[in-house]
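task queued by scheduler; priority normal; single chain, no ligands, no partner chains; default sampling; output format set to structure tokens
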Amino acid sequence: MRLRAYALAVLLIAAGCSSKPPGKTVRVAAASDLALAFEELGREFHNKTGITPVFDFGSSGLLAKQIEQGAPYFLFAAANKQYVDTVVAAGKCDAKSVRPYARGRIVVWCPSKVAAPLKLEELAEPRFAKIAIANPEHAPYGKAAKEALEKAGVWDKIQDRLVIGENVQAAMQYARNDSADAAVVALSLAVVTDGGAFLAIDQSQYEPLEQELVVCGNSEESDAARQLVEFIASTDGREVMTRYGFLLPTEQLRKK
């Protein structure tokens, strides 16, 4: 039985390896709020260049740690510029390639069975028995959610009702599968989710989610990453980002 299980595991690993896209690829570590927007951008980029972006989406803090530890990513798109600074300081990514690409926004999203709040303070009401957020320790959108909830005076009131997701996608999933009555998540995820409704949170309630990206490594794959960066900044790329609810930055690179 053990031999058969081992053989099956080998076959599954082989099948996974054979599923790698043919031709040129570029491995990208990207914040979870970018999942839907970047998947669309990736398809358009492939159609134009023949290069296939291979995305790993997660919390920016955990992705930054992986890059520091040598994970083979050649583009890092973070939800907060501090994590880009971290990988640059570690010598893993090119400081000259740093550029802002978007500003994120947060909302309170509720599934169809729950009426969305009209103001953030309503989350303290008993009808919101479970409220999901991303982990504020390493997820920028979770940190922004905590800041907004604190400013609204409800953070301490809902401590025992919080459901913490590994990243903002996980927080959204809790609300989508009815494990939470509300989720404080990225606007980019809420605008493309069927059903439900959301309350936009005033941007003055949290530190700006200035999102930056940076090219890592020094190889042919790094060159492909630079091409992807230019595509994201192009008219086509900016149209996609705007459609997913991101505010666009100025064209100037952030001064170091």
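post-processing summary
- The CA atoms of residues 186 and 226 lie 26 Å apart.
- The chain has two domains: 2-103+209-243, 106-200.
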